[in-house]
């Protein structure tokens, strides 16, 4: 019984009239309701802490302010990386991040791809330092497979877009090269 439904006691302590009927108790959450809420919380958290290559590229083209960080080692970095990314291996984040990235700047991290948890380790390291951080799921692999801008130590790398990860199309460049045209007209292709 809540305090609002307790009967008032007169100052003289004499019994009072019968209390008003108590309100029906609030329904309790069922196990199914709790499981449903747990699923909602899980997927909402994933969307809050993860992003994907198409959304990152759209954010770049929209001029959103963030730092994209490649958390892989020297060899993978030299072999190829997202154009414009900062190289900060996950093992060095605690020592270097605050010198290289303002604390109030959002960070997006990536590693090789879905089979690698280096991006998750990097995101955890940034989170421990107090950064607003998201992990780019799919990593470098899916960025490259979607035909998005990639560079290596020699400069830009032309890569054909993979029709298993993105819709092939987008103008003369795409028609001539089989790659996705990535320019100011970029739109995520998965309708996600």
Description:
- The protein contains 7 helices and 8 strands, in the order αβαβαββαβαβαββα.
- With 192 residues, it is an alpha/beta fold.
- It has a domain at 49-156: Rhodanese-like domain (Oxidized Rhodanese, domain 1), CATH 3.40.250.
- The strands form 2 sheets. The chain has a 5-stranded parallel beta sheet. A 3-stranded antiparallel beta sheet has the order 3-7-8.
- A hairpin with a 2-residue loop joins strand 7 and strand 8 (155-157).
- The two termini are 48 Å apart.
Class of the domain at 49-156, according to the CATH hierarchy? Alpha Beta
CA-atom Rg in angstroms: 26 Å
How would you classify the helix and strand content by structural class?
alpha/beta
Number of DSSP E strands: 8
What's the order of the H and E elements? Answer: HEHEHEEHEHEHEEH
CATH fold node name of the domain at 49-156? Oxidized Rhodanese, domain 1
Q: Please identify which CATH superfamily of the domain at 49-156 we are dealing with.
A: Rhodanese-like domain
Number of helices: 7
Q: Mean pLDDT across all residues, rounded?
A: 83
Strand content: 5-15%
Q: How are the strands ordered across the major sheet?
A: 1-6-5-2-4
Largest sheet: number of strands, sense, barrel closure:
5 strands, parallel
Distance between the termini: 48 Å
